[in-house]
Write a structure and sequence with these properties.
heterodimer, A: about 325 residues, mainly alpha, ABC transporter involved in vitamin B12 uptake, BtuC, two-stranded antiparallel sheet, 13 helices, globular, B: about 350 residues, 16 helices, 2 strands, about 70% helix
Chain lengths: ~325, ~350
């Protein structure tokens, strides 16, 4: 209790610390928002709740990590580690897109028409499989990649901002922007949005919904993969960290609702910041619990609001 | 009850009692089999019979473990001091103390979990379908994280139960029979329950909750009572597990969301959801598969299990009993008119 009070006191004594916490939160939150956007996309278009979301993220991280560690690209092209790490985001995007397509063809295509619990359980099984395969292939140690850039300091060194993290956030923002533009302008993006609105009508109008589903799921996996490749260069990954990203993605989508991109981004950044505050005040051990409790609070809040609506109807 | 059924049940009961002597090397595996049967049967009470698929029943398992530990230790020593010493101090249990702790702890675990089910259910039963599953999963994950930060019960290090005062072989037998007795009681209880008005009411909730409410069933009350009963048995099973494992820690053993928490659902799906025998058959099939992969595919056992989950969920969702009901409807008291008779009647 004293610890908590002194941590709280610190926030008021040095207001600049707040800025650091919020900055950290925004950086983490932007990556959560990417995973959550993919989840909202799949959820909205084909009504599948993908619990393997976090494992796609981690798998993307391992793709990038593996690419850098094998070093054949460095020797082949004569480029530095830094370049390969940044290139890894693109490679992870492509590779995970392919893996997502395979997952769709093997599993997801069979659960689209079924009830929601089926998709939840099937992707849970997929999540277990992916985490274990990564564990067998890459070992259970935490891994990360170091970008050789400086760290910027502000406010007498109270705030440190590694350029690597800055690059990560910019890449996340760029990716989000690209996906949004793709959804708004391209022919495929239109087809995806049409299928999400009414899949039967879309079929009648000549859209190959099966193709749209496959594309959406592999796009989701690709977004997650790129997010994972960013995560591996700013934080660490480990085969079993996937569930934490899945939980966050679910919290964000539940809070923001489907098809609400500004909401997803705001909720993602908000959860990132809330978690950083929580772990600063209560200690790092509570970080995961705070995310989950937020989910419960949001669900209860929505429930109470529904109850109120019901009473009005009576 | 017909004579045929009586013979079947009698044989199974005799087999249950004799099993640890017939297979003396598999006492632990047999005990785990009973644990799976208990959690699968109690999951099916809400999942199969009432249509509320919980992914958080593992919460009651973990809570049961901790309640049993706290009660057993608490009636003899101070819990805070005990966990502080983390096995370093000299703590001895006499026979009387051990069994008193076991009886009280198991009962307290069951009752406390039933109470928890009431409180959590009051909030989460407003959620429908997959939201209920995610909400309950959230409760289980959050509880694991919170307990692992709670130093009074040992924090992330976990907590040690007293050692059995007698010899180890006898201990395994005691644990097996505890599980078996709980399992048999549970089976008899649900077999009776599903034939009563109460069983019909929860089936009505599964089939159409809105209509059930319109028919005058107080749905929330039925849902809460069913989940509390289910939680009682899971909690009691968790308490026995705590004694069996001797030492356990919160994240991997007590609130093991991705192991037992998901296994119980897979057992029920494998055997057939919403049937009396489904969870039992499924638990046996699952346990055999698990032991086989653990022995022959070491290293890849988890991948095999994940694949099993996917395959069962995607392709065989009706489970073994569902398949049997389709093939042999007359065994389930369902009469199917043959196609010829139907067309003759129409013409």
């Amino acid at each position: 209790m004293d610890q908590i009070m002194s941590n709280l006191g610190l926030l008021f004594e040095f207001p600049i610390v707040n800025l650091k916490i919020i900055l950290d939160g925004v950086m983490i939150g932007s990556l959560f928002a990417l995973a959550a956007y993919g989840l909202a996309l799949v959820w909205g278009v084909m009504n599948v709740k993908n619990l393997a979301q976090g494992d796609f993220v981690i798998a993307g991280g391992y793709v990038s990590w593996f690419l850098v560690k094998t070093e054949w690209l460095q020797s082949l092209l004569g480029v530095s580690d830094n370049f390969v790490i940044l290139l890894g985001v693109l490679v992870a995007f492509v590779v995970m897109g392919a893996i997502g397509w395979v997952c769709y063809k093997l599993i997801i295509t069979k659960v689209i028409e079924r009830d929601l619990f089926t998709s939840l359980l099937a992707t849970f099984g997929l999540a277990i499989m992916m985490a274990q395969i990564m564990n067998l292939l890459f070992g259970s140690d935490t891994q990360s990649l170091k970008l050789e850039y400086d760290t910027l300091y502000f406010a007498d060194g109270l705030i440190d901002l590694p350029i690597a993290k800055l690059i990560g956030v910019c890449m996340a923002a760029g990716l989000a922007l690209a996906v949004v533009l793709f959804m708004k302008t391209s022919r495929m993006g239109q087809a995806i949005r049409a299928t999400a609105q009414d899949s039967r009508a879309a079929r009648v109008l000549g859209i190959d919904t099966e193709k749209v589903y496959a594309f959406t799921f592999s796009l989701n996996a690709a977004i997650c993969g790129a997010a994972g490749a960013i995560i591996v260069m700013v934080w660490v990954i480990q085969p079993f960290y996937g569930i934490t990203y899945s939980v966050r993605a679910f919290v964000i989508v539940t809070a923001a609702g489907l098809g609400n991109l500004p909401g997803v981004i705001a909720a993602g950044l908000g959860i990132g910041a809330a978690e950083q505050y929580g772990s600063h005040i209560f200690g790092i051990g509570y970080q995961q619990a705070i995310a989950v409790l937020l989910l419960l609070i949001i669900l209860i809040y929505k429930l109470l609001r529904q109850r109120r609506l019901r009473q009005v109807l009576q | 009850m017909s004579a045929k059924k009586l013979v079947l049940y009698g044989t199974l009961l005799a087999l249950t009692i004799a099993a640890p002597f017939l297979f003396p090397n598999f006492k632990t595996q047999l005990a785990t089999l009973w644990l799976m049967i208990i959690v699968a049967l109690s999951w099916d009470m809400t999942g199969g019979q009432m249509g509320y698929n919980s992914l958080g029943n593992i919460f009651f398992y973990g809570t049961g473990m901790y309640v049993a530990a706290v009660v057993t230790i608490g009636i003899v020593y101070d819990v805070g001091e005990y966990t502080q010493a983390s096995g370093g101090g000299i703590y001895v249990w006499t026979w009387g103390q051990y069994f008193a702790g076991m009886a009280l702890g198991t009962l307290a675990a069951g009752l406390f979990c039933a109470l928890c089910a009431f409180l959590i259910g009051w909030i989460t039963f407003g959620l429908r379908g997959p939201y209920f599953a995610i909400g309950t999963l959230g409760v289980a994950i959050a509880a694991g994280e919170l307990v692992s930060n709670w130093e009074w019960v040992g924090g992330g290090q976990g907590i040690s139960m007293p050692n059995y005062p007698g010899d180890f072989d006898q201990f395994k037998l005691v644990i097996y029979y505890l599980y078996a007795v709980l399992g048999v009681i549970l089976f008899m209880f649900v077999a009776w329950l599903y034939q009563t008005r109460f069983g019909a009411a929860i089936n009505a909730i599964r089939d159409d909750e809105g209509k059930a409410e319109a028919m005058g069933i107080h749905t929330l009350r039925y849902k809460l009572i069913t989940w509390a009963m289910s939680a009682f048995f899971v909690g009691a099973a968790g308490a026995i597990s705590a004694f069996q494992l001797i030492h356990f820690e919160p994240l991997e053993t007590a609130y093991q969301t991705i192991n037992l928490g998901i296994f119980m659902v897979v057992c029920v799906l494998l055997g057939g959801k919403g049937t009396l025998w489904g969870p039992v058959v499924g638990a046996v099939m699952f346990q055999v598969f698990k032991e086989a992969t653990w022995n022959y595919f070491l290293g890849w056992q988890w991948v095999a299990l994940g694949a099993l989950i996917v395959v069962v969920v995607v392709f065989f969702q009706d489970g073994f009993m569902g398949w049997l009901r389709y093939k042999r409807p007359e065994w389930f008291g369902i009469r199917v008119e043959s196609k010829d008779a139907a067309t003759e009647g129409a013409s």
